[in-house]
């Protein structure tokens, strides 16, 4: 029911094109997954997602478990039907959010006095909802159970992703726990039409990454994820660890670099042999009035014979208030091309929903267009 096959390997780098087969269709890799946190890619209709090139979307287990509840989603025909998205879906395990959001809730003062930091034991994590401070528990068994109720094609192992400021001993402890939980996840899994993908952890420590890889490859999965590489480290570290993981994971499986979203990072990691990406960045930036556009000088995108620059522009800035130029001359998203920067500036200033929609679609298309170029390039060499 699930498989990964390499179609073409680049002769110039470790980049490759391939196909991941799932019950809801094929994912052509490299591929980017727009994030639909609560079961919707914010401001973008599923038909629009298809039109701009999305083949798979990611939904968050933590959020859907809290609201509307995984049992409700199951009753309503599971995620594909609930979201009216009939192509592949991936759900994360909730592992990352039970730590980060419990803490964010604490920082933001949501339900003050009730929210405490998440408590972790070998059985799982006790945490407090960022919505109302209510107490919950998710461990490997609970995470798989929730993900089975949600019904995505690819589900993720419940892992402990330590924060960036953790020392080696803490990272090692989190890794041992993640390894232990992986076995429990596979034991808890009952659905045959879902692929459970193991996650490599180990922070910035190569020996721990190596230990993690030796452990997860025992499960012979067509997809392995690399977690904990984009949680605040320098780009240099992200590249170094990603390259190490890509070099050491089995060639015949797809590699999913979790949470990587800047165009230049995606390109770099594709050149190391990563195949799947997800990030909230394109849509989150859009909601802040920020767009990715091609330009003469700026952030460099380089891979094989692809070379261009782009910049992140903040449309709220006064300098765009009278600009009759289009957002990006070379964009083919068809959603942005007939609007001037001045009009988009106006929409952003007025907090008009249309502005967020146009920029969200445009930023996502920016990534898809880039990935399509890369695929053509890999096939050429
Ligand atoms: Zn566009």
UniProtKB/TrEMBL annotation:
Cofactors: Zn(2+)
Residues that, per the record, bind Zn(2+): 331, 333, 336, 362
GO cellular component: cytosol
EC annotation from Swiss-Prot or TrEMBL: 2.4.2.29
Chain ranges of the tRNA-guanine(15) transglycosylase-like domain: 14-379
Top-level enzyme category: transferase
Matches recorded under SUPFAM superfamilies: tRNA-guanine transglycosylase
GO aspect biological process, one term: tRNA queuosine(34) biosynthetic process
Record: active site: 92, 278
Note describing how the cofactor binds: Binds 1 zinc ion per subunit.
Pfam families to which the protein is assigned, alphabetical: TGT
Molecular function GO labels: metal ion binding; tRNA-guanosine(34) queuine transglycosylase activity
NCBIfam families, sorted: Q_tRNA_tgt, tgt_general
Protein's recorded name: Queuine tRNA-ribosyltransferase
Biological source species: Candidatus Berkelbacteria bacterium CG10_big_fil_rev_8_21_14_0_10_41_12
């Amino acid at each position: 029911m699930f498989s990964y096959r390499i179609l073409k390997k680049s002769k110039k780098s470790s980049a490759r094109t391939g196909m991941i087969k799932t019950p809801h269709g094929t994912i052509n890799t490299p591929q980017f997954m727009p994030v639909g946190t609560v079961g919707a890619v914010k401001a973008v209709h599923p038909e629009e997602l298809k039109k701009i090139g999305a083949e798979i979307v990611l939904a968050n287990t933590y959020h859907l478990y809290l609201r509307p509840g995984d049992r409700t989603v199951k009753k309503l025909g599971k995620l594909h039907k609930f979201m009216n998205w009939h192509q592949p879906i991936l759900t994360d395990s909730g592992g990352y959010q039970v730590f980060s959001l419990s803490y964010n809730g604490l920082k933001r003062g949501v339900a003050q006095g009730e929210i405490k930091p998440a408590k972790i034991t070998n059985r799982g994590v006790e945490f407090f909802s960022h919505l109302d401070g209510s107490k919950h528990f998710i461990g490997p068994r609970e995470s798989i159970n929730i993900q089975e109720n949600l019904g995505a094609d690819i589900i993720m192992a419940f892992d402990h992703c330590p924060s960036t400021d953790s020392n080696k001993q803490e990272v090692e402890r989190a890794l041992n726990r993640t390894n232990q939980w992986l076995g429990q996840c596979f034991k808890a899994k009952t659905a045959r039409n879902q692929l459970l993908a193991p996650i490599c952890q180990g922070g910035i420590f190569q020996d721990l990454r190596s230990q993690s890889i030796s452990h997860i490859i025992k499960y012979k999965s067509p997809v392995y994820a690399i977690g904990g590489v984009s949680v605040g480290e320098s780009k240099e570290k992200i590249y170094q660890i990603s390259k190490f993981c890509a070099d050491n994971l089995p060639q015949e499986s797809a590699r999913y670099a979790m949470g990587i979203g800047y165009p230049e990072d995606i390109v770099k990691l594709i050149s190391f042999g990563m195949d799947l990406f997800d990030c909230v960045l394109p849509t989150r930036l859009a909601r802040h009035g920020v767009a990715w556009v091609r330009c003469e000088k700026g952030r460099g995108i380089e891979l094989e014979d692809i070379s261009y620059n782009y910049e992140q522009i903040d449309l709220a800035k006064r300098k765009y208030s009278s600009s009759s130029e289009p957002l990006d001359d070379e964009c083919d998203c068809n959603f942005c091309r007939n609007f001037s920067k001045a009009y988009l500036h106006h929409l952003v200033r007025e907090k008009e929903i249309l502005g967020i929609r146009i920029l969200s679609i445009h930023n996502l298309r920016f990534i898809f267009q880039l990935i399509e170029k890369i695929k053509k390039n890999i096939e050429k060499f």
